[in-house]
TrEMBL record:
Gene3D superfamilies per the UniProt record, alphabetical: Multidrug resistance protein D
Membrane topology: Multi-pass membrane protein
SUPFAM superfamilies linked to this entry: MFS general substrate transporter
PANTHER family named in the record: MAJOR FACILITATOR SUPERFAMILY, POLYAMINE TRANSPORTER 2-RELATED
GO molecular function, one term: xenobiotic transmembrane transporter activity
NCBIfam families: efflux_Bcr_CflA (TIGR00710)
Keywords: Cell membrane, Membrane, Transmembrane, Transmembrane helix, Transport
GO biological process, one term: xenobiotic detoxification by transmembrane export across the plasma membrane
Family: Belongs to the major facilitator superfamily. Bcr/CmlA family.
Residues spanning the membrane: 7-24, 44-63, 75-94, 100-121, 133-156, 162-181, 213-231, 251-271, 278-299, 305-322, 343-363, 369-389
UniProt-recorded name of the protein: MFS transporter, DHA1 family, bicyclomycin/chloramphenicol resistance protein
Positions of the Major facilitator superfamily (MFS) profile domain: 9-397
Length: 408
C-alpha cells in the first residue's frame, strides 16, 4: 500500500475513532451554562454524560452484527447520519430531559464510527501491520482529551454551549464526506448473515470461544479501566487534595497524555524487534509492579504531588504499550466476524471502564486511594487473564473464515 494512501486511511479511521471521545469531553466546560440555561442543576446535566456512556455500551453490540451483514460503510453512514441529526437536535432543546435523550441517540450514532474503525483496521491491514495502525489510531484518540475541553471552553465562551453541538455535527458531516469519497468498502456484505437474536448470539459466542480473543480483549478492557479511574478521580486528586488551579490541572493532564501518546508511538518502533505478545507480557508485569508501589505509597501516607505524577506517568506509559498490541492480538483471528469481535471488545472496555468510574466515586473526596486501588486491581486481574488465557491459546490459529494466522 502506498505511503500516502496508507496515511490517508489511518487519518480517516483515527478521526472516526476520535468522534466519541470528542463528544464526551468537548461540552464539559459548559455544564454550568447548560444548567443555568435549562433551569436545572449541574448534577442533572451530568445525566446527559451518563446517558452517553449507556448509549456507547449498548451501541457497541448493535453495530457488530450490522457491520458483518451489510459491510462496513452502510452501517457507518447510518451511524453518522443519526449522530448528525442528534447533534443539531441539541441546538433546539428547551429541557434537560431532551438533552439527556438526544445525547443517548448521539452515542448510538458515534458507536458506528468506533466499531467500524477497529474492524476496518483488521480488513485493510495485515496482521503484522495492525499493531502499528492501532498505535496510530491511539495517537489521534489520545490527543482528543487534550484538545476537546480546551476548544470547547473557548467556543462556549465566544458563542455559547449550543455551538459545541454545531461543531460536533459539522465534524460528523466532514467525516461522512471523507468516508464516502476516500474510504473503501473493506468487507463484502454477507446476505446470509442473520440479524435475528439467536444467530447474532451464536456469532458472538463464536467470537467468545476463541481463546486469543477473550484473553487479550479482557486484558485490554481491564487495563483500560485503570485509565477511566485516572480520568474520573484526577480532578479531585489534583484540584482538591493538591490544590492545583484549573489551568495547572489542564497542563498536568496534557503532560500525562503526552506520556501515553509517546509510549504508543515508541511501541510502533520496537515492534521491529519484539512481537506484540512479548510487549504485552513485559508491559503488563511492569504495570503491576508500578501500580502496587503506587498503592503502597498511598496506603502508608507517603504520596506527594511529585510521586503521584511519576506513578501515573509510569502506569500510562505501560498502557500505551499494552493497548494497541492487545487490540491487534484480540482481533487477529477474525476476518468474517471482525465486526462482532470489535463490538465485543469495545463493550468490554466501556463496561469495565464505567465500573471503574463508579468504584472511584465510592471513596471519600479527601482520599488519595481511589486511583491506585483501581489501577492495582485492574493490572493484577489483567495479569491473571494473561496467565490463565495463554494456556488455551494454540500456536496456530485458524480464523472463522478459514484462513490461518500464525500468532506466535
Amino acid at each position: 500500500m502506498a505511503a500516502k494512501r496508507r496515511f490517508g486511511l489511518i487519518l480517516i479511521l483515527g478521526c472516526l475513532a476520535a468522534l466519541g471521545p470528542f463528544s464526551i469531553d468537548m461540552y464539559l466546560p459548559g455544564f454550568v451554562d447548560i444548567a443555568e440555561n435549562l433551569r436545572t442543576t449541574e448534577a442533572t446535566v451530568a445525566l446527559s454524560l451518563s446517558s452517553f456512556f449507556i448509549g456507547i455500551s449498548a451501541g457497541q453490540l448493535l453495530y457488530g452484527p450490522l457491520l458483518d451483514k451489510f459491510g462496513r460503510k452502510k452501517p457507518l453512514y447510518a451511524g453518522l447520519v443519526l449522530y448528525i441529526v442528534a447533534s443539531f437536535g441539541c441546538l433546539a432543546v428547551t429541557d434537560v430531559n431532551q438533552l439527556i435523550v438526544l445525547r443517548f441517540v448521539q452515542a448510538i450514532g458515534s458507536c458506528a464510527t468506533a466499531v467500524a474503525s477497529i474492524a476496518m483496521v483488521r480488513d485493510l491491514f495485515t496482521v503484522e501491520e495492525s499493531p502499528k495502525v492501532f498505535a496510530s489510531l491511539m495517537l489521534v484518540i489520545a490527543v482528543s482529551p487534550m484538545l476537546a475541553p480546551t476548544a470547547g471552553g473557548y467556543l462556549i465562551e465566544a458563542l455559547g454551549w449550543r455551538y459545541v453541538f454545531v461543531f460536533l455535527g459539522l465534524m460528523a458531516v466532514s467525516m461522512l464526506v471523507a468516508t464516502a469519497i476516500k474510504l473503501p468498502e473493506s468487507y463484502k456484505p454477507d446476505p446470509s448473515y442473520s440479524l435475528r437474536p439467536k444467530p447474532i448470539l451464536i456469532s458472538f459466542a463464536q467470537v467468545l470461544r476463541e481463546p486469543q480473543f477473550y484473553t487479550y480483549a479482557l486484558i485490554s478492557a481491564f487495563v483500560f479501566s485503570g485509565l477511566f479511574a485516572y480520568v474520573s478521580s484526577s480532578p479531585v486528586l489534583f484540584m482538591k487534595i493538591y490544590h492545583l488551579s484549573k489551568t495547572d490541572y489542564g497542563w498536568i493532564f496534557a503532560g500525562l497524555s503526552v506520556v501515553f501518546i509517546g509510549a504508543s508511538q515508541v511501541n510502533s518502533v520496537i515492534l521491529r524487534w519484539f512481537s506484540s505478545k512479548h510487549i504485552v507480557s513485559f508491559a503488563l508485569v511492569a504495570q503491576c509492579i508500578f501500580s502496587i508501589l503506587f498503592l503502597a505509597f498511598a496506603w502508608n501516607g507517603m504520596l506527594n504531588f511529585v510521586s503521584t505524577i511519576v506513578f501515573i506517568a509510569l502506569f500510562l506509559c505501560c498502557l500505551g504499550f499494552i493497548n494497541p498490541n492487545a487490540a491487534a492480538l484480540s482481533m487477529a483471528p477474525f476476518s468474517k466476524h471482525a465486526g462482532s469481535a470489535s463490538a465485543l471488545m469495545g463493550a468490554f472496555q466501556m463496561a469495565l471502564g464505567a465500573g471503574a468510574s463508579v468504584l472511584v466515586s465510592l471513596f471519600s473526596e479527601q482520599s488519595q486511594l481511589p486511583m491506585p486501588v483501581v489501577m492495582t486491581v485492574a493490572s493484577c486481574v489483567a495479569m491473571c487473564c494473561l496467565l490463565v488465557g495463554s494456556q488455551f491459546i494454540r500456536e496456530e490459529i485458524v480464523d472463522v473464515s478459514g484462513g490461518t494466522f500464525v500468532g506466535h
